Amino acid sequence: MFKEEKLTNLILGKAFEVHSLLGPGLLESAYRDCLMYELVNAGLRVKRELMLPLISELLTPRSQNERKF
Predict the structure, then answer these.
(1) Residues 6+ positions from 23 with CB-CB distance below 8 Å
(2) What's the distance, Cα to Cα, between the start and end of the chain in Å?
(3) Domain coordinates of the chain in residue numbers?
(4) Rg of the Cα trace of the chain?
(5) Cβ-Cβ contacts under 8 Å for 66 (sequence gap 6 or more)
(6) Which pLDDT band, with edges at 50, 70 and 90, does 61 fall under?
(7) Which comes out higher in pLDDT, residue 61 or 9?
(8) What does the pLDDT read at residue 43?
(9) Which end of the chain is more exposed for a tag (fewer CB within 10 A), N or C?
(10) Residue 60 has pLDDT above 80, yes or no
């Protein structure tokens, strides 16, 4: 298995684990914070909510900075 696949499987596994434990209906921040905790405990170095440039014909430069995904 490729390194990227292992990393992807780890992240998705932790995301599913967090959602299964917390259940549906919570704020996004609850899932985000718990996932961050799980990923750090799994030995990953993580950063959250980085500003990344979005390049799209549909977005103006101003709205690129305001988009949150």
Answers:
(1) none
(2) 29
(3) 3-66
(4) 15
(5) none
(6) low
(7) 9
(8) 95
(9) C
(10) no
- Residue position matching structure tokens 């799980």: 38
Question: pLDDT for 13-58, tens place per residue?
Answer: 999 999 999 999 999 999 999 999 999 999 999 998 888 777 777 6
Q: Tokens in use for 16? A: 């599913």
State the residue for tokens 């430069």. 61
Q: What is the pLDDT of residue 52?
A: 79
Q: Which amino acid is at 46?
A: V
Under 8 Å between Cβ of 66 and 41: no
Closest CA to 49 of 69, 64, 19: 69
Contact in structure between 54 and 67 (CB atoms under 8 Å): yes
